[in-house]
Amino acid sequence: MKPYSITTALLGFLSTALASAATQTQSSKANLPVDFKPPQVFKNANLVHVISLEKNYVKEQINVLVENIASEPQDEYYLPFTADQVVRVGGFEVKDRKDANAGPFAAEPVEYHPRNNVQYYRIRFPTPLKAGAQQTIGISFYYLKAYAPLPASVPQDELQYLVYDFSIYAPSAYPTLKQKTEIKSSSSAIPNYTKIKEFPTKQGAKLTYGPFEEQPAGAVSPAQVRFEYAKPVTHVTVLDRDIEVSHWGGNVAFEERYNLVHRGANLSAPFNRVKWVQAAFYNPPTHALRELRVPLQVGSADAYFIDTIGNVSTSRFRSNKREAMLELKPRYPLFGGWKYPFTIGWNSDAANFLRKTVTGGYVLKVPFLEGPKQVEGVEYAKVNVNVLLPEGAENVKFYTNIPESAITSTSVGIAKTYLDTVGRTSVTIEARNLVDEFRDRELIISYDAPLSSALRKPIVIFASMMALFFTTWAIGTVQVGFQPRK
Questions:
Q1: CB count, 10 Å around CB of 216?
Q2: Torsion angle defined by CA atoms of residues 457, 460, 465 and 468, in that order, rounded to the nearest 10 degrees
Q3: Could you tell me the CA-to-CA distances from 314 to 20, 27, 310, 317 in Å, in that order?
Q4: Strands 153-154 and 192-193: what pairing?
Q5: Kindly report the CA angle at 118 between 89 and 44, in degrees rounded to 5?
Q6: In the chain, what is the straight-line distance between the N-terminal and C-terminal CA atoms, in Å?
Q7: Is 457 helix (H, G, I), strand (E, B) or coil?
Q8: For residue 410, what are the β-bridge partners?
């Protein structure tokens, strides 16, 4: 392992980030008074709401010019959600639209009454917005379990249609002077959608509502869009991702266990295998899930694919100097309502992820989320990442650039594995409502591994072998027999 060659500034940033993340625990909801209403200290001078239906999760972006109409500086901006929506929101991030280098704003879900139908995310400006000042912010988030198939059941060889419910007016706790909403579908086949006056205007796969004039805080206009979706609706209820670091072997081992379900339209008749094989010759559009493609770190090796029955041979793994790709074909095509639990794993050279610092410590940098990379996307309701560090690792600190609101819990503990003595240090992070667009986000862990802890295991193994040898020798010297009576 080569020493880390990084600048003092980067070391300072990493140290600060790791130190703050080390003490981070459950990103729990903050409590507000039961009669809470966001203070009317802002107005939205202009707002553009973009809803993307191009993947099997919904991505929403709200770009808004915020103006402080109070007499004092303000730094808390609230965004409302219904109780049903807030539990399905994921990847909530807020950025300065005019400063690409500025980091994301702090944002968290807040709660003032668990049974209230309106919940809020609270956004904190890095610097309080002065009276009369304006700032343009970009709010982005995702909805999981966003669609409903209509009809709910279709024949095996027919197309699937999905329905999405939304509000023509963007959710806001403040009055909005001017706004418009854009819907981007994955297909131009949109047979049904809500009409209001002369809106929307349709251009291919895009619907545009507005612009609308001033609307009061909390304005809602329910709407619905139904569109063709000839792709699977892939949903992972739980992903358990284990990462095991070995200094002695110079290896990082990955294993991922998936509980996958297709949330699209069910089959209206039993699955016909003959019809499915015949269709393979002309490859028509289908909403069935036939394969998964998992890009891995270049140099990955020893990939495997198993399910509850055992090893799955319908897979292909190729690895060269330019790429590493694991292509999976489940034992059967997945249609709406069908489930498929499976496990994949692989090994990689530790030099790809692990570096030794000039102070003698170690820094591990791995993707927080990998998994399949599909055209239609993949959504994850729950992700559990467990990193096993070498035995005796201490002074552990960690940081991830996954949105803080998605992290539900973190912990550092001890886990015992094969031939361990005192157990290996483990870092566990649980997250919710993530999508495959976070595949490139990183998990960084710094730790120290004293030489004494590194030598403990071979010394214990050597001592055990010597004890076994000595015991065997001692037993072999014992003479067992009976002396005849004289």
A1: 10
A2: -140
A3: 45, 41, 12, 10
A4: unpaired
A5: 80
A6: 73
A7: helix
A8: 429
Q: What are 472-484's pLDDT values in tens digits?
A: 878 877 776 666 6
- Positive or negative torsion for Cα 367, 372, 375, 380: negative
DSSP state letter for 336: T
φ, ψ at 466 (rounded to 5°): -65, -40
| Low-confidence winner among 203-207, 249-253, 312-316, 368-372 (lowest mean pLDDT) | 312-316
Helix (H, G, I), strand (E, B) or coil at 17: helix
Question: What are the residues facing 226 on neighbouring strands?
Answer: 163, 192
**Range name among 26-40, 152-166, 406-420 with the lowest pLDDT average:** 26-40
Strands (E), 331-471: 339-349, 354-356, 362-367, 379-391, 394-400, 407-415, 424-435, 442-448
Structure tokens at 350: 């530790």
Answer yes or no: are the C-beta atoms of 367 and 443 closer than 8 Å.
yes
CA separation for the pair 305, 6 (Å, rounded)? 37
| Helix or strand (DSSP H, E) at 257 | strand 251-262
DSSP of 145-180:
S--EESSSEE-TTS--EEEEEEESSPP-SS-BSSEE
Length of the chain: 486
Indicate whether 422 pLDDT > 90.
no
Tokens coding 461: 């193994």
Beta strand 379-391 with 234-246: parallel, antiparallel or unpaired?
Answer: parallel
Give the C-alpha separation, 146 to 149, whole Å.
10
Chain-wide mean pLDDT for the chain? 87
pTM reported for the whole predicted model: 0.86
> Higher confidence at residue 247 or residue 216?
216
Q: What residue has token string 């394969």?
A: 291
Contact 391, 453 (CB under 8 A): yes
Nearest residue to 306 (alpha-carbon basis) of 277, 326, 276: 326
162, exposed or middle or buried, with CB in 10 Å at 0-12, 13-18, 19+?
buried
Sign of CA dihedral 29, 31, 35, 37: negative
Average pLDDT over residues 100-105: 79
Most confident stretch, 22-31, 209-218, 278-287: 209-218
Q: Report yes or no: 254 and 203 within 8 Å, Cβ to Cβ.
A: no
Helices H, strands E: what count in the chain? 4, 31
